[in-house]
Amino acid sequence: MSAAPTLLVADDDPLLRRLLDTLLTRAGYRTILAADGAELITLALPAPPDLILTDLSMPVLDGLAAMRQLRADPRTRTVPILAQSACPLLGAQAVTAGASAFMLKPFPLDDLLALVASHLSFRRDA
Which of 33, 49, 97, 102 could be stapled to 91 by a disulfide with Cβ–Cβ 3.0 to 4.6 Å? Predict the structure, then answer.
């Protein structure tokens, strides 16, 4: 039996972070939580997760800057990153910075679960 995939969730909104943690844990994933982009980098680099879900507008280090750092590091270069924001204008910037996909907040939770599953499946098949 294989271990549950590990997802690193970064969002500065504690309520959304808890909601995503609950949703993803109930779906069978192991979650690690970060409150900002700096914490995301600190947690991701030493032990890269199977997938990263990050907000783009966060204090300390925003999601775009964090993604650029993750893509520049060989340990996290290929980890799928699902970016999310309430600002539709950030979608193109997210993809340019290295996002595997962009979701506009608010998004249907079923859509998020489907996107997570498809990126994890794609990574396993690669």
Answer: 102
